[in-house]
Structures are given as C-alpha cells and as structure tokens.
Amino acid sequence: MIENVVTVKLPVGESLVIRKNRHEPAAAGTKKLKRLCIVSGTHGDELEGQCVCYFLNRILKENPQHLNGIVDIYPALNPMGIDTIQRGFPGFDLDMNRIFPGSADGAPTEWVASRLMDEFAGADFAIDIHASNIFLREIPQVRVNITTADSLVRYAKMLDVDFVWVHQASTVLESTLAHSLNSIGVKTLVVEAGVGMRITVDYCQRLTNGILNLMKNEGMWTGPVRPVSAPIISLDRAVSFVNASVPGVFIPSVRHSDNVKRGEEFGTIVDPLTGEVRQKCVSEVDGLLFTLREYPIVNEGSLIARILQEASR
C-alpha cells in the first residue's frame, strides 16, 4: 500500500511528497509483527537503492504468502534531489543526511527530518542504502559505528556484502539518519555500494537477497533465500588511505576489489599534456582494495583508494 508520509507545500503550486510502500501480511490479527524500514534516496546522486527498492517491492508484492512482518520501503527521502540529480536538498544547499533528528519548530528541511524520525520511530530495523559519490566506487559494504558494533555487526553479516567496516566515532555522524535512529532504539545499518549516478545491478541483487536473508533470520520471511557470503570484518584491521599528491588524470592498473601487495603499483596519475607520469600510486600495505577512484580527474589531496590491511597473524 502506497502512502504519503511527508508533504510540504512549495512555490508555484507544487508539493514535496515523500512516499512509502508498506507490505504486511493480509491476516496479521492482533499479533505484534516486527517492522523493517528500507530507506534510500537521501542523496539525490546515489541511485543503487532505487534498484534495490524495485527488486524488493516486486518480490514482496508477488509473494505475500511468505511475509510475516511489516516492511516499509522509502525509495526517495530526497525526491527533489533525485529529480534534479543533486546530492543535497535543492534550494537549501545542504546535505539532508546532516540535519537529523531535525526539529518540529525549525526550517522546512529540519521539519521534514523531524517528521521522518516520527515515521521511523518504533521500527525494529532500518537499512539505510547509499552509493558512493561520482568520484569513488565501493564494494558492497555495511558501515557500523564502533559505539553500536556489539549490537549491529551480527545483523550486518546477514546482508550478503563483502565487507563490514566498523569505524571510529565522529561528531559529524551525530547528525545522520542512522545515528539518530540507533539513538532511539531502531537498529540501523548503513549500506554503501557502487558509484554515484549509476546502478550496479549485481550489487543490488545481492543486497536484495541479503535483506530477505535478514528477514528470514528474524522470522519475517518464509520464502527462498540464496546463500550469502561471509563478509570481512574490519575490527582487527587498519584502513590505509592513498591520496593524490599532484593534479592530473588517474589511470588504474588493477580492478576494484582486487587484493594488492605492499609496494605494489595499482595506478598512475598522468599529465595528458606532457605525456609524463606524475605519480605512481603504490599500496603501503597488503590488503583489499575496497574503494577505488572512479572519476579520473584528480587534484592534490583527492582520495584515490582505501585498502583494508590484512589481519595480523
């Protein structure tokens, strides 16, 4: 059932409308059902979640007999951003994922965030689906703040991703949707996969299967689920960052998600005018190349890669 959950009047007789599609068993009775929220489209240039929402809506619609819980699917928390291909909230020049939990008495964007918090309150789980931006490509991963790792990593392992990145606490995360929902008891996992403004279909298929797997483990789904991969967990591993020291054009020499060795060259930054190699991009560790530069034009300081160091023996 499709519902409007937030509506804001705009100039020229238009409205900002955030919608959800609710799936629930036809004969739930008085039994209390678990509720899962699938959230995407917070950033208008991240489109992988649109494909996941499509796959999941279709599966749940065609197989209602297997559903034993409530699934609310929100494809576009920032519909204006998606419509205009803008990362942030158009007209306000801000990142929507930096205004939670919002304020009922604040500016329109803060009011929207506040209403969304009311909407998600009481859910058992939420999966906040993101892609990378247009500059970087990410392998399918779940990002978990270290403060919530004890309660969330077990669920992250169910999502059929390659990697669970348990990262350190940071004050900027306090204004994200995931942090705000975890603070009110909604177990929220942040998924990053793919690249901005594109859809990587196989990543989306895997995540859809992973969501069904989580639902099955929680008694919300009785239908078929393919086996899921066991992800690498970063708890005992460091992440190495490689940045550009010069401007130029980055040309990779390995594939994204490859394993690289310490001292191995995985790409170069070149000068197309002179035909010179300006920087050899070399790994400082043995490990997994889980982030790789997608957009080739770089400036000094641009992120080129993230490499998950192999576990110490």
TrEMBL record:
The keyword Transmembrane does not apply. Gene3D superfamilies: Zn peptidases. It comes from the Bacteria. Its cofactor is Zn(2+). GO terms for molecular function: hydrolase activity, acting on ester bonds; metal ion binding. InterPro entries: AstE_AspA_cat, N-alpha-Ac-DABA_deacetylase. This is Succinylglutamate desuccinylase. It comes from Parasutterella muris. The lineage of its organism: Bacteria, Pseudomonadati, Pseudomonadota, Betaproteobacteria, Burkholderiales.
